[in-house]
Design brief:
CATH architecture: 3-Layer(aba) Sandwich
Largest sheet: 7 strands, mixed
Number of helices: 8
CATH topology: Rossmann fold
Helix content: 40-55%
Strand content: 15-25%
Radius of gyration: 16 Å
Structural class: alpha/beta
Strand order of the largest sheet: 3-2-1-4-5-7-6
Distance between the termini: 60 Å
CATH superfamily: Vaccinia Virus protein VP39
Order of helices and strands: HHHEHEHEHEHEHEE
Shape: globular
């Protein structure tokens, strides 16, 4: 029988998700319940949560497994930030700051964090206000389907200059955006093919070291 939820494929791609299956089941149930009241994800992906959202989001932690203090920009339904928080749940000192200006979506994120005991802090603010205050406290910044790379760097500039690493999901336009970022000269960029979406990339951005 075909696994319609994508669970089997998600666990094959990211075996580490098996340690938080109970929490992810709670997350999925909450998402479906809240989706009836507010638009959290595309309706077309609601029956493919495990692969389209959980596994896709797991690529952040896979790209930077040593980072335990994150900020997630424009968290929406919690992808990727809440999944990162759950994957770090057993890690001492782990925290993921989820920045979401929509009060209803922030309420959903609080419900997921409460029900799963994820190490997440919800900030109901605009990114431009919340993220600079976290610079120096965080090691990583993530975002999925939020904005073009140059805009993401603009939003995250203060934290990136403090040494945080950016891990961003990009679609088929990633090459042009990467070229624009590299032209700035201040950041180094690496990218890897997405494990869950054909043509998409996971882009890792770091501040370039100053010449000695």
């Amino acid at each position: 029988m075909r696994d319609a939820s994508g669970r089997d494929e998600a666990l094959r791609l990211f075996p580490e998700l098996s340690a938080i299956e109970t929490e992810l089941d709670i997350y999925a149930a909450l998402l479906k319940r809240w989706q009836a009241k507010i638009n959290l994800v595309s309706a077309a992906t609601l029956n493919d949560i495990w692969l389209r959202h959980f596994a896709d989001s797991a690529q952040v932690h896979a790209a930077a497994p040593d980072i335990v203090r994150w900020a997630d920009m424009g968290s929406g339904a919690g992808f990727p930030g809440m999944v990162t928080a759950l994957l770090l749940k057993a890690t001492p000192g782990a925290v993921v700051h989820l920045i979401e200006s929509d009060q209803r979506k922030a309420s959903f994120l609080r419900a997921v964090s409460r029900e799963t005991t994820a190490p997440a802090i919800i900030h109901v603010e605009r990114i431009e206000t919340a993220l600079p205050k976290l610079a120096g406290q965080i090691e990583g910044i993530s975002a999925r389907a939020l904005a073009p790379l140059p805009r993401l760097l603009q939003l995250a500039e203060t934290a990136l200059k403090e040494g945080a690493v950016g891990v961003f999901f990009k679609g088929e336009e990633w090459r042009d955006e990467l070229t624009a970022v590299e032209a700035l000269g201040s950041f180094s960029c690496e990218s890897a093919e997405s494990r869950t979406r054909r043509g998409a990339r996971i882009v890792v951005i770091k501040r370039k070291a100053s010449p000695s």
